[in-house]
Amino acid sequence: MSTVDTSLFTPELVFFDFEASDRVDFFTKMSQILMDKGYVKESWLDAIMTREKNYPTGLAFEHISVALPHVDPEHLVKPYIAVIKPKEPVIFEGMAGIGGDIPAELIVNLGLLAHAEGQVAVLQALMGVFMEEDTVADIRAQTTPEGMVDTMKKYCA
């Protein structure tokens, strides 16, 4: 069985050409979207910004730079995985202090009910996806929310 619950990928949480001047702007806008859609509590914004400051999530792979921000389950109403292709890369700090600033071309925001061990398993599975050149090319080629969902499900299954 996959470590990623692919049912959490939904077209309503796929965004293309997302405009954000920086990660604070990104999180502020995502907070409103996720609250409006009933996924997160008001505490989500402060919690994800604090977590990102303490545990940065930017990763530079050979073929794409990504960010995998996530938050503890108590800030969620229901689980989700949001996939965002920003209009311009959004700067995230490198995970585990590696790589300095990472201009994220793709942001996969995880809202998982699993605690630390489950989140680590999902993060590792996603990292494996972003290491493959053909997989990254397929993800980059997507232009519709439905296509992105199908593609992420295919590689995360």
TrEMBL record:
<dbReference type="InterPro" id="IPR016152">
    <property type="entry name" value="PTrfase/Anion_transptr"/>
</dbReference>
<keyword id="KW-0813">Transport</keyword>
<dbReference type="InterPro" id="IPR002178">
    <property type="entry name" value="PTS_EIIA_type-2_dom"/>
</dbReference>
<keyword id="KW-0762">Sugar transport</keyword>
<protein>
    <submittedName>
        <fullName>PTS sugar transporter subunit IIA</fullName>
    </submittedName>
</protein>
<dbReference type="InterPro" id="IPR051541">
    <property type="entry name" value="PTS_SugarTrans_NitroReg"/>
</dbReference>
<feature type="domain" description="PTS EIIA type-2">
    <location>
        <begin position="7"/>
        <end position="155"/>
    </location>
</feature>
<dbReference type="Pfam" id="PF00359">
    <property type="entry name" value="PTS_EIIA_2"/>
</dbReference>
